[in-house]
Amino acid sequence: MEFNVKGITFTQDDLVTINLSDIEVNTISHAHYFHFLPGKSKAILLLRAGDYLDKEFVERFKKKGLASLYCLEVTSREEVQKYKTLWGQFKVQRTQKQKLLFRDVILKKVAEDFLILEEKSFLSFVIACFEEFNIYSQDFIYNFQNGSLILYNRALLVSALNSLVCLATDYTDYLFIKDFYNLAFGMDSGFILKEAPNFMLISACEAERKYPGSGQEYLEKNKRSEFEIKKFLNHPLTSFELVSEFKEKFIFPELIEHIKIHHEKRDGTGFPYGLYYSSLSDTETLLSFCDYFVPFEEHHFHKGDGRLLLDKNFQSFTQSSFFSSLPVQHFSSSWQGVLNWSYLSQKAVSE
Ligand SMILES: [Fe+2]
User: Fold this and answer.
1) Ligand 1 center to 235 CA (angstroms)
2) Is residue 205 within 8 Å of residue 262, measured between CB atoms?
3) What is the pLDDT of residues 115-165, one digit of tens each?
4) Are residues 260 and 328 in the same domain?
5) How far is the CA of 236 from the centre of ligand 1 (A)?
6) Residue 241 located in a structural domain
7) By C-alpha distance, which of 122, 119, 17, 130 is closest to 70?
8) Domain end call among 42, 73, 104
């Protein structure tokens, strides 16, 4: 019998039983968790892969007398650990030459897992990055997750991708990558500062991503309130305030300023300031680069989702009409270089 629960399809054979005491807590879940109603014809989704999983989740079911739950694994602790080990080794490389060599080791593993073999989920890399770099409190993560699953999931993806783009563009300072991971994670957190964002606001974000400058227009067309439009246009500032609360956890707190200008454009058509920059710095555009190629839509982590996240989304971004007007060409060609290299090595293997 095939089940479809909130877009996740599986059969009972795909599930494994896991003892509550064996569930790893205080991290991002590597599996979907289910409970079956008596008769086993209805499954309830308790937690999705990619959600934050804490001690209380397990305690809640223990109190109800349950000993185990059903889980559908998307990745495994072993896969996550492989990436954590790689980050740990990268961290201790001393010379730039060693760092670059080790950078290649990480990118090669990413290419093999998600672009060449295509059988694994990008979630293993996402969890490893979160465990390695995250500085935010549990409350912050919870507010984010409860405020909007779309924004929360997207923050996980954009931040993990950002760390890869740092490597691809020769930013090999571990501490810088850590800061940038957290900037990318928090840059749209301002939407959830006071209340959960509605669907219109998230759609405005997607409109803005697809056609820079069209987010406000989208809200006006849909007759949204002045307050909502302001909230949208000010989100770089509210996100900045929210992330600044974690200032002492940043190695270079000056970088938090980048969040304020992640929607500014060289020609003064951006927001909230409409600044005219003679040019944007490399690191300022680095933050907005991945923001362009990850859509604002629900992503269910699943095996084989790497090509969509690392390549397909990127290709549709580079084919967009506004692509050439953005100051991200440097990052784009480096990332394309990583993709070309992956596919060339794949060809070499199969020949
Ligand atoms: Fe934004």
Assistant:
1) 7
2) no
3) 998 889 999 999 999 999 999 999 999 988 988 889 999 999 999 999 999
4) yes
5) 6
6) no
7) 17
8) 73
